[in-house]
Design brief:
It is a single chain. The protein has helices spanning 2-12, 17-33, 40-65, 73-90, 98-126, 130-149, 162-166, 174-192, 194-204, 206-211, 216-242, 253-263, 275-294, 299-327, and strands spanning 154-155, 168-169, 172-173, 244-245. The protein has 328 residues and is an all-alpha fold.
Length: 328
């Protein structure tokens, strides 16, 4: 048994065992309690619902790895989506062409990067706590969005935008393909690049990273800029899925992105964690939501379960750390 566990850890990593065990538990429990759970319809629904949450989780991941947090990801996504929507509206609305969409998408990504840039500069140069800085940015973006839209939404986009949120390629949902591309890019960035190495170093000990020659200010700014860009990608997907944009879209996702990171083995204090376990944790949470819906639970109960699950994960990780110390 120990040899099997060692082989699994060598191939997949020890941090993947927990999310895979949770995935198996969800499949077994809801497979027995609901006859409609293990069906193509359920997994198809998950494949379409997962991407925007998944991309937002990737936007949360890198700041957490540095020992920080980005509470502004959902409102960054909404402002980016509004930027794209305004660009389309200014160029004909439903008659806008692909050029307008590409311009709007570029501006949306730029808005996301600008949001992250401001947070990164403040965190890096003033050493203000990331929670306070990102909370301030969240409040600013929410207020700005409400002011510009007067609390309403923007809808009416060209028909070619819809496939980004609802289309399929060879039976695979387009938004899921976008998420997979973002997962691969994040994995390569964190595991194969100097920025990824520096991110882990800062999360482990920012002072040691500074003394070892890492430009910690530059790294923090880049991390939060990339977080903003990833949130903007989520905003574009949300626009295509809902065919409308408003400031409050996806507010409940914030809790779930943090939960997915911790369930995926990310150290809440930074310095440790990988993308693949987080991706599996996302699947677990989305399947959990679908299973509860099939049992007749409403979205509010699902949110409550997610909150309790976050507490349970923290307690289990504490017990696991204690057990490892005892064994050693």
């Amino acid at each position: 048994m120990n040899a099997l566990a060692a082989r699994f850890n060598a191939i997949f990593g020890a941090d993947l065992a927990g999310p895979l065990a949770a995935l198996a538990a969800v499949l077994i429990v809801f497979g027995f309690t609901s006859p409609h759970f293990l069906t193509a319809a359920t997994f198809g629904s998950v494949a379409f619902q997962l991407p925007e949450l998944g991309v937002l989780t990737l936007a949360m991941l890198m700041p957490i790895l540095t020992g920080g947090l980005n509470l502004a990801i959902t409102f960054t996504a909404n402002i980016a989506g509004l930027t794209l929507a305004w660009t389309l509206q200014a160029n004909g609305g439903i008659d806008a062409g692909p050029g307008a969409f590409l311009l709007g998408s570029a501006l949306a990504l730029a808005v996301g990067a600008a949001s992250g840039l401001v947070m990164g500069l403040v965190i890096a140069f003033t050493r203000a706590h990331p929670i306070l800085v990102s909370l301030s940015m969240m409040i600013f973006l929410r207020g700005l969005g409400e002011f510009l839209t007067r609390g309403g939404d923007i809808s009416g986009f060209p028909t070619f935008v819809a496939p980004i949120g609802h289309g399929s390629v060879l039976g695979i949902p387009v938004p899921l393909l976008i998420l997979i591309a973002c997962v691969i890019a994040s994995h390569i960035l964190l595991s194969r690049s100097k920025l990824g190495f520096s991110t882990y170093m800062i999360g482990s000990n920012i002072e040691s990273a500074r003394y070892s020659g890492i430009n910690t200010r530059k790294v923090l700014v880049l991390v939060y800029m990339l977080s903003g860009v990833m949130a903007a990608v989520a905003g574009i997907i949300m626009l295509a899925r809902f065919n409308s944009v408003r400031v409050g879209h996806g507010e409940s996702y914030l809790l779930i992105t943090v939960l997915a990171c911790f369930l995926g083995g990310i150290n809440p204090f930074g310095g440790f964690g990988r993308v693949l376990p987080v991706f599996v944790a996302l699947i677990v949470l989305q399947l959990l939501s679908s299973g509860l819906n099939l049992l007749g639970a409403n979205q509010h109960l699902t949110t409550a379960v997610w909150g309790i699950l976050l507490i349970v994960v923290m307690v289990l990780r504490w017990f696991s750390a204690k057990f490892i110390k005892i064994v050693k």
